[in-house]
TrEMBL record:
SUPFAM superfamilies: Cryptochrome/photolyase FAD-binding domain (SSF48173), Cryptochrome/photolyase, N-terminal domain (SSF52425)
Record flagged with keyword Phosphoprotein: no
Designated name of the protein: Deoxyribodipyrimidine photolyase
GO BP annotations listed: nucleobase-containing compound metabolic process; response to light stimulus; response to stress
Organism: Chryseobacterium taiwanense
Site description Electron transfer via tryptophanyl radical, residues in chain: W287, W340, W363
InterPro entries: Crypto/Photolyase_FAD-like_sf (IPR036134), Crypto/Photolyase_N_sf (IPR036155), Cryptochr/Photolyase_FAD-bd (IPR005101), Cryptochrome/DNA_photolyase_1 (IPR002081), DNA_photolyase_1_CS_C (IPR018394), DNA_photolyase_N (IPR006050), Rossmann-like_a/b/a_fold (IPR014729)
Gene3D superfamilies (alphabetical): 1.25.40.80, DNA Cyclobutane Dipyrimidine Photolyase, subunit A, domain 3, HUPs
Binding site for FAD: Y213, W253, E256, L257, I258, W259, R260, E261, F262, F263, D353, Y354, D355
Amino acid sequence: MEMDKINIFWFRRDLRLEDNAGLYHALKSGLKVMPVFIFDTEILDQLQDKSDKRVDYIQQALANLQRDLIDLKSGLTVYHGKPLDIFKSLTEEFEIDTVFCNRDYEPQAIKRDQQVKDFLHKKDIAFSDCKDQVIFEKNEILKSDKSPYTVFTPYSKIWKEALQSIETFAPDFNNLVHISNPKDIPSLEDIGFKKTEIMFTKPSLDLKIIKTYGQYRDFPSLDHTSHLGVALRFGTISVRECVQFALKHNETWLNELIWREFFMQILFHFPYVVTHCFKKKYENIHWRNNEEEFKAWCEGKTGYPIVDAGMRELNTTGFMHNRVRMITASFLTKHLLIDWRWGEAYFAQKLLDYDLSANNGNWQWVAGTGCDATPYFRIFNPEEQTKKFDKELKYIKKWLPNYDQPKPLVDHRLARERALEAYKKALD
Protein backbone atom coordinates (compact mmCIF):
# COMPACT_ATOMS: atom_id res chain seq x y z
CA MET A 1 0.00 0.00 0.00
CA GLU A 2 1.40 3.41 -0.97
CA MET A 3 2.16 5.70 1.96
CA ASP A 4 0.35 9.03 2.04
CA LYS A 5 2.49 12.04 1.29
CA ILE A 6 3.25 14.26 4.25
CA ASN A 7 4.91 17.59 4.92
CA ILE A 8 7.52 18.07 7.61
CA PHE A 9 7.88 21.04 9.89
CA TRP A 10 11.45 21.37 11.18
CA PHE A 11 11.58 23.18 14.54
CA ARG A 12 14.79 25.15 15.16
CA ARG A 13 14.83 28.61 16.80
CA ASP A 14 11.05 28.62 17.16
CA LEU A 15 10.17 26.19 19.95
CA ARG A 16 6.49 27.09 20.31
CA LEU A 17 3.17 26.29 18.67
CA GLU A 18 1.64 29.76 19.00
CA ASP A 19 2.19 32.42 16.33
CA ASN A 20 4.73 30.28 14.47
CA ALA A 21 4.87 31.41 10.82
CA GLY A 22 6.50 28.31 9.32
CA LEU A 23 4.26 25.93 11.25
CA TYR A 24 1.21 27.94 10.19
CA HIS A 25 2.13 27.67 6.50
CA ALA A 26 2.96 23.97 6.83
CA LEU A 27 -0.43 23.23 8.39
CA LYS A 28 -2.19 25.33 5.76
CA SER A 29 -0.55 23.41 2.91
CA GLY A 30 -3.21 20.71 2.71
CA LEU A 31 -1.12 17.66 3.67
CA LYS A 32 -0.61 16.16 7.11
CA VAL A 33 2.34 17.68 8.93
CA MET A 34 4.95 15.79 10.97
CA PRO A 35 6.86 18.03 13.44
CA VAL A 36 10.54 17.19 13.92
CA PHE A 37 13.50 18.60 15.83
CA ILE A 38 17.16 17.74 15.31
CA PHE A 39 19.79 17.94 18.04
CA ASP A 40 22.50 19.02 15.62
CA THR A 41 25.76 17.28 16.50
CA GLU A 42 27.71 19.79 14.40
CA ILE A 43 26.68 22.41 16.97
CA LEU A 44 26.61 20.24 20.10
CA ASP A 45 30.06 18.74 19.49
CA GLN A 46 31.57 22.24 19.71
CA LEU A 47 30.25 22.74 23.26
CA GLN A 48 33.03 21.80 25.67
CA ASP A 49 30.93 22.10 28.83
CA LYS A 50 28.59 19.12 28.93
CA SER A 51 26.56 20.87 31.66
CA ASP A 52 25.51 23.55 29.19
CA LYS A 53 22.41 25.32 30.48
CA ARG A 54 21.25 26.19 26.96
CA VAL A 55 21.05 22.53 25.91
CA ASP A 56 19.11 21.82 29.11
CA TYR A 57 16.77 24.74 28.30
CA ILE A 58 16.16 23.39 24.79
CA GLN A 59 15.53 19.86 26.10
CA GLN A 60 12.97 21.17 28.61
CA ALA A 61 11.35 23.43 25.99
CA LEU A 62 11.01 20.39 23.71
CA ALA A 63 9.40 18.39 26.53
CA ASN A 64 6.92 21.25 26.98
CA LEU A 65 6.27 21.29 23.22
CA GLN A 66 5.76 17.53 23.28
CA ARG A 67 3.10 17.83 26.00
CA ASP A 68 1.25 20.42 23.92
CA LEU A 69 1.43 18.24 20.81
CA ILE A 70 0.23 15.15 22.69
CA ASP A 71 -2.82 17.16 23.77
CA LEU A 72 -3.43 17.70 20.04
CA LYS A 73 -3.19 13.90 19.40
CA SER A 74 0.18 14.32 17.70
CA GLY A 75 3.80 14.41 18.78
CA LEU A 76 7.29 15.69 18.14
CA THR A 77 9.90 13.35 16.69
CA VAL A 78 13.38 14.27 17.91
CA TYR A 79 16.56 13.20 16.15
CA HIS A 80 20.25 13.45 17.11
CA GLY A 81 22.82 13.82 14.35
CA LYS A 82 23.80 15.91 11.35
CA PRO A 83 20.73 17.51 9.73
CA LEU A 84 21.70 16.36 6.23
CA ASP A 85 22.06 12.75 7.41
CA ILE A 86 18.72 12.94 9.24
CA PHE A 87 16.94 14.20 6.14
CA LYS A 88 18.51 11.44 4.06
CA SER A 89 16.94 8.93 6.49
CA LEU A 90 13.60 10.76 6.57
CA THR A 91 13.30 10.68 2.78
CA GLU A 92 13.80 6.91 2.85
CA GLU A 93 11.20 6.42 5.57
CA PHE A 94 8.48 8.85 4.43
CA GLU A 95 6.92 10.15 1.23
CA ILE A 96 7.64 13.87 1.71
CA ASP A 97 6.21 16.69 -0.37
CA THR A 98 7.70 19.75 1.37
CA VAL A 99 9.97 20.51 4.32
CA PHE A 100 8.88 23.72 6.06
CA CYS A 101 10.96 25.71 8.55
CA ASN A 102 11.65 29.26 9.70
CA ARG A 103 14.60 31.16 8.31
CA ASP A 104 17.87 31.63 10.14
CA TYR A 105 20.35 34.39 9.26
CA GLU A 106 23.64 33.16 10.72
CA PRO A 107 26.28 32.16 8.13
CA GLN A 108 26.59 28.55 9.36
CA ALA A 109 22.82 28.12 9.46
CA ILE A 110 22.46 29.53 5.93
CA LYS A 111 25.09 27.03 4.73
CA ARG A 112 23.35 24.13 6.54
CA ASP A 113 19.97 25.03 5.07
CA GLN A 114 21.39 25.31 1.56
CA GLN A 115 22.90 21.82 1.84
CA VAL A 116 19.56 20.37 3.01
CA LYS A 117 17.68 22.29 0.31
CA ASP A 118 20.04 21.05 -2.44
CA PHE A 119 19.67 17.45 -1.28
CA LEU A 120 15.87 17.68 -1.11
CA HIS A 121 15.75 19.29 -4.56
CA LYS A 122 17.44 16.21 -6.03
CA LYS A 123 14.65 14.14 -4.48
CA ASP A 124 11.94 16.47 -5.89
CA ILE A 125 11.08 17.61 -2.38
CA ALA A 126 10.41 21.32 -1.84
CA PHE A 127 12.10 23.34 0.91
CA SER A 128 9.97 26.23 2.15
CA ASP A 129 11.48 28.62 4.70
CA CYS A 130 9.50 31.46 6.27
CA LYS A 131 10.25 34.72 8.06
CA ASP A 132 9.52 34.28 11.75
CA GLN A 133 12.22 35.46 14.17
CA VAL A 134 12.22 39.08 12.96
CA ILE A 135 9.72 41.69 11.81
CA PHE A 136 11.91 42.84 8.90
CA GLU A 137 14.63 40.76 7.26
CA LYS A 138 17.26 40.73 4.54
CA ASN A 139 16.50 43.56 2.10
CA GLU A 140 13.24 44.81 3.60
CA ILE A 141 14.84 47.84 5.30
CA LEU A 142 17.37 49.48 2.98
CA LYS A 143 18.66 52.96 2.22
CA SER A 144 17.43 54.77 -0.89
CA ASP A 145 20.49 53.45 -2.78
CA LYS A 146 19.46 49.88 -1.81
CA SER A 147 22.45 49.39 0.49
CA PRO A 148 21.96 48.17 4.09
CA TYR A 149 21.90 50.57 7.01
CA THR A 150 25.00 50.50 9.19
CA VAL A 151 23.89 53.12 11.71
CA PHE A 152 21.12 52.29 14.16
CA THR A 153 19.22 55.61 14.44
CA PRO A 154 18.26 55.97 10.75
CA TYR A 155 17.62 52.21 10.56
CA SER A 156 15.22 52.34 13.51
CA LYS A 157 13.45 55.40 12.06
CA ILE A 158 12.75 53.62 8.75
CA TRP A 159 11.92 50.39 10.61
CA LYS A 160 9.20 52.21 12.58
CA GLU A 161 7.87 53.98 9.48
CA ALA A 162 7.67 50.67 7.61
CA LEU A 163 5.70 49.01 10.39
CA GLN A 164 2.13 49.34 9.19
CA SER A 165 0.62 46.33 10.93
CA ILE A 166 1.79 43.07 12.45
CA GLU A 167 0.42 39.85 11.04
CA THR A 168 0.22 37.04 13.57
CA PHE A 169 -0.33 33.38 12.76
CA ALA A 170 -2.97 31.12 14.31
CA PRO A 171 -2.33 27.59 12.99
CA ASP A 172 -5.08 25.02 12.41
CA PHE A 173 -3.69 22.03 14.29
CA ASN A 174 -6.15 19.57 12.70
CA ASN A 175 -3.58 18.90 9.99
CA LEU A 176 -0.93 17.54 12.35
CA VAL A 177 0.04 13.91 11.76
CA HIS A 178 -1.86 11.73 14.24
CA ILE A 179 0.59 9.91 16.52
CA SER A 180 -0.95 7.63 19.13
CA ASN A 181 2.25 6.81 21.07
CA PRO A 182 4.89 9.49 20.49
CA LYS A 183 8.41 8.65 21.60
CA ASP A 184 9.85 10.36 24.64
CA ILE A 185 12.11 13.34 24.06
CA PRO A 186 15.74 12.16 24.35
CA SER A 187 17.19 12.86 27.77
CA LEU A 188 20.25 15.05 28.19
CA GLU A 189 22.26 11.91 28.92
CA ASP A 190 21.06 10.40 25.61
CA ILE A 191 22.75 13.23 23.72
CA GLY A 192 25.87 13.36 25.89
CA PHE A 193 24.96 16.24 28.24
CA LYS A 194 24.21 16.64 31.94
CA LYS A 195 21.36 18.15 33.92
CA THR A 196 21.80 21.69 35.21
CA GLU A 197 19.86 23.76 37.73
CA ILE A 198 17.98 25.71 35.03
CA MET A 199 14.20 25.37 35.05
CA PHE A 200 12.22 26.12 31.90
CA THR A 201 9.10 28.18 32.41
CA LYS A 202 6.86 29.35 29.62
CA PRO A 203 7.88 32.98 28.93
CA SER A 204 5.42 35.80 29.47
CA LEU A 205 5.35 39.57 29.13
CA ASP A 206 5.45 41.40 32.46
CA LEU A 207 3.54 44.69 32.16
CA LYS A 208 5.08 46.10 35.34
CA ILE A 209 8.63 45.51 34.05
CA ILE A 210 8.01 46.68 30.48
CA LYS A 211 6.05 49.81 31.41
CA THR A 212 8.90 51.19 33.54
CA TYR A 213 11.71 49.57 31.53
CA GLY A 214 13.33 52.84 30.43
CA GLN A 215 13.26 54.19 33.97
CA TYR A 216 14.95 51.30 35.77
CA ARG A 217 16.74 49.11 33.21
CA ASP A 218 20.24 50.52 33.91
CA PHE A 219 20.29 49.62 37.61
CA PRO A 220 21.54 46.05 38.01
CA SER A 221 20.42 45.61 41.63
CA LEU A 222 16.79 46.25 40.60
CA ASP A 223 16.89 43.41 38.04
CA HIS A 224 14.33 45.39 36.06
CA THR A 225 14.80 43.83 32.63
CA SER A 226 12.48 41.54 30.69
CA HIS A 227 14.70 38.41 30.90
CA LEU A 228 13.26 37.43 27.52
CA GLY A 229 16.62 37.20 25.72
CA VAL A 230 16.76 33.42 25.98
CA ALA A 231 13.08 33.07 24.97
CA LEU A 232 13.68 35.20 21.86
CA ARG A 233 16.90 33.29 21.13
CA PHE A 234 15.14 29.93 21.04
CA GLY A 235 11.75 31.21 19.92
CA THR A 236 9.78 30.11 22.95
CA ILE A 237 8.09 33.51 22.61
CA SER A 238 7.05 35.23 19.37
CA VAL A 239 8.84 38.45 18.41
CA ARG A 240 5.56 39.70 16.94
CA GLU A 241 3.89 39.35 20.32
CA CYS A 242 6.79 41.24 21.94
CA VAL A 243 6.70 44.07 19.40
CA GLN A 244 2.93 44.48 19.71
CA PHE A 245 3.34 44.70 23.49
CA ALA A 246 6.21 47.19 23.19
CA LEU A 247 4.24 49.40 20.79
CA LYS A 248 1.48 49.57 23.36
CA HIS A 249 3.59 50.04 26.50
CA ASN A 250 7.20 51.20 26.05
CA GLU A 251 9.27 52.66 23.21
CA THR A 252 12.59 52.10 25.01
CA TRP A 253 11.94 48.37 25.03
CA LEU A 254 10.77 48.53 21.41
CA ASN A 255 14.14 50.09 20.53
CA GLU A 256 15.91 47.15 22.18
CA LEU A 257 13.92 44.77 19.95
CA ILE A 258 14.92 46.88 16.92
CA TRP A 259 18.60 46.74 18.00
CA ARG A 260 18.23 42.94 17.90
CA GLU A 261 17.06 43.10 14.26
CA PHE A 262 19.67 45.72 13.37
CA PHE A 263 22.50 43.42 14.45
CA MET A 264 20.84 40.46 12.68
CA GLN A 265 20.78 42.34 9.37
CA ILE A 266 24.39 43.49 9.90
CA LEU A 267 25.41 39.83 10.30
CA PHE A 268 23.36 38.84 7.24
CA HIS A 269 24.79 41.56 4.97
CA PHE A 270 28.34 41.54 6.39
CA PRO A 271 29.07 37.96 7.50
CA TYR A 272 32.79 38.72 7.82
CA VAL A 273 32.01 40.41 11.18
CA VAL A 274 31.94 36.94 12.78
CA THR A 275 35.73 36.92 12.82
CA HIS A 276 36.74 40.44 11.76
CA CYS A 277 36.18 44.03 12.81
CA PHE A 278 33.36 45.68 10.90
CA LYS A 279 35.65 48.72 10.52
CA LYS A 280 38.57 46.99 8.91
CA LYS A 281 41.18 49.58 9.93
CA TYR A 282 40.65 48.46 13.54
CA GLU A 283 42.39 45.20 12.65
CA ASN A 284 45.58 47.26 13.11
CA ILE A 285 45.09 47.57 16.88
CA HIS A 286 48.01 45.99 18.73
CA TRP A 287 46.17 44.03 21.44
CA ARG A 288 48.18 43.06 24.53
CA ASN A 289 46.26 39.77 24.97
CA ASN A 290 47.81 38.95 28.36
CA GLU A 291 46.53 35.46 29.21
CA GLU A 292 46.87 35.85 32.98
CA GLU A 293 44.85 39.07 32.93
CA PHE A 294 42.22 37.44 30.70
CA LYS A 295 41.92 34.57 33.19
CA ALA A 296 41.49 37.07 36.05
CA TRP A 297 38.75 38.83 34.06
CA CYS A 298 36.97 35.53 33.34
CA GLU A 299 37.07 34.55 37.01
CA GLY A 300 35.98 37.95 38.34
CA LYS A 301 39.33 38.76 39.97
CA THR A 302 40.26 42.08 38.36
CA GLY A 303 40.12 44.13 41.57
CA TYR A 304 37.29 46.27 40.16
CA PRO A 305 34.16 45.20 42.11
CA ILE A 306 31.51 46.05 39.45
CA VAL A 307 33.48 44.10 36.82
CA ASP A 308 34.06 41.14 39.13
CA ALA A 309 30.42 41.05 40.28
CA GLY A 310 29.29 40.93 36.65
CA MET A 311 31.62 38.10 35.73
CA ARG A 312 30.56 36.09 38.76
CA GLU A 313 26.90 36.63 37.93
CA LEU A 314 27.63 35.36 34.41
CA ASN A 315 29.62 32.33 35.57
CA THR A 316 26.97 31.40 38.15
CA THR A 317 23.74 32.01 36.25
CA GLY A 318 24.44 32.33 32.53
CA PHE A 319 23.01 35.84 32.68
CA MET A 320 24.54 39.30 33.11
CA HIS A 321 22.72 42.59 33.45
CA ASN A 322 23.02 44.63 30.24
CA ARG A 323 24.63 47.70 31.85
CA VAL A 324 27.23 45.43 33.46
CA ARG A 325 27.84 43.65 30.13
CA MET A 326 28.96 47.01 28.72
CA ILE A 327 31.18 47.73 31.73
CA THR A 328 32.88 44.30 31.71
CA ALA A 329 33.38 44.37 27.91
CA SER A 330 34.81 47.88 28.02
CA PHE A 331 37.17 46.86 30.81
CA LEU A 332 38.50 43.89 28.83
CA THR A 333 38.98 45.72 25.55
CA LYS A 334 40.09 49.14 26.82
CA HIS A 335 41.62 48.68 30.29
CA LEU A 336 43.34 45.38 29.50
CA LEU A 337 43.66 45.86 25.72
CA ILE A 338 42.51 42.31 25.08
CA ASP A 339 40.99 41.53 21.69
CA TRP A 340 37.18 41.81 21.71
CA ARG A 341 37.06 38.36 20.04
CA TRP A 342 38.38 36.75 23.25
CA GLY A 343 35.61 38.31 25.31
CA GLU A 344 32.98 37.59 22.67
CA ALA A 345 33.98 33.91 22.65
CA TYR A 346 33.82 33.72 26.46
CA PHE A 347 30.33 35.26 26.52
CA ALA A 348 29.34 32.84 23.73
CA GLN A 349 30.26 29.92 26.01
CA LYS A 350 28.47 31.28 29.07
CA LEU A 351 25.42 33.35 28.09
CA LEU A 352 22.07 31.61 28.17
CA ASP A 353 20.72 34.18 25.73
CA TYR A 354 23.80 33.97 23.49
CA ASP A 355 22.89 35.07 20.01
CA LEU A 356 25.72 35.42 17.50
CA SER A 357 24.51 38.66 15.91
CA ALA A 358 23.75 40.47 19.20
CA ASN A 359 26.85 39.21 21.00
CA ASN A 360 29.12 40.11 18.10
CA GLY A 361 27.41 43.45 17.50
CA ASN A 362 27.51 44.52 21.14
CA TRP A 363 31.14 43.49 21.67
CA GLN A 364 32.19 45.41 18.57
CA TRP A 365 30.06 48.36 19.70
CA VAL A 366 31.92 48.53 23.01
CA ALA A 367 35.33 47.93 21.44
CA GLY A 368 34.68 50.71 18.92
CA THR A 369 35.35 48.33 16.00
CA GLY A 370 31.74 47.84 14.94
CA CYS A 371 29.34 49.46 12.52
CA ASP A 372 27.41 51.80 14.80
CA ALA A 373 30.02 51.81 17.53
CA THR A 374 30.74 53.86 20.60
CA PRO A 375 33.73 56.11 19.76
CA TYR A 376 37.00 54.41 20.72
CA PHE A 377 37.83 57.23 23.12
CA ARG A 378 34.73 56.55 25.26
CA ILE A 379 36.11 54.34 28.00
CA PHE A 380 33.85 53.35 30.88
CA ASN A 381 35.28 54.20 34.28
CA PRO A 382 34.15 51.27 36.49
CA GLU A 383 34.17 53.37 39.65
CA GLU A 384 32.05 56.14 38.09
CA GLN A 385 29.68 53.54 36.65
CA THR A 386 29.32 52.05 40.14
CA LYS A 387 28.51 55.45 41.66
CA LYS A 388 25.93 56.09 38.97
CA PHE A 389 24.21 52.70 38.73
CA ASP A 390 25.00 50.80 41.98
CA LYS A 391 25.77 53.55 44.47
CA GLU A 392 24.51 51.52 47.46
CA LEU A 393 26.60 48.54 46.23
CA LYS A 394 23.57 46.22 46.39
CA TYR A 395 24.45 44.44 43.15
CA ILE A 396 28.13 44.19 44.05
CA LYS A 397 27.38 42.82 47.54
CA LYS A 398 24.96 40.26 46.08
CA TRP A 399 27.64 38.74 43.84
CA LEU A 400 30.68 39.45 46.01
CA PRO A 401 29.40 38.79 49.55
CA ASN A 402 32.81 37.91 51.01
CA TYR A 403 34.94 39.81 48.53
CA ASP A 404 38.60 39.81 49.40
CA GLN A 405 39.37 42.52 46.88
CA PRO A 406 42.51 41.72 44.93
CA LYS A 407 44.86 44.49 43.94
CA PRO A 408 43.44 46.11 40.77
CA LEU A 409 45.03 44.66 37.64
CA VAL A 410 45.50 48.16 36.24
CA ASP A 411 45.15 51.78 37.25
CA HIS A 412 42.17 53.34 35.45
CA ARG A 413 43.94 56.54 34.39
CA LEU A 414 47.04 54.77 33.09
CA ALA A 415 44.96 52.08 31.36
CA ARG A 416 42.84 54.75 29.69
CA GLU A 417 45.90 56.56 28.35
CA ARG A 418 47.39 53.28 27.13
CA ALA A 419 44.18 52.37 25.30
CA LEU A 420 43.84 55.77 23.66
CA GLU A 421 47.41 55.56 22.46
CA ALA A 422 46.99 52.03 21.07
CA TYR A 423 43.80 52.92 19.21
CA LYS A 424 45.17 56.21 17.89
CA LYS A 425 48.31 54.49 16.63
CA ALA A 426 46.25 51.84 14.84
CA LEU A 427 44.04 54.40 13.14
CA ASP A 428 46.75 56.85 12.04
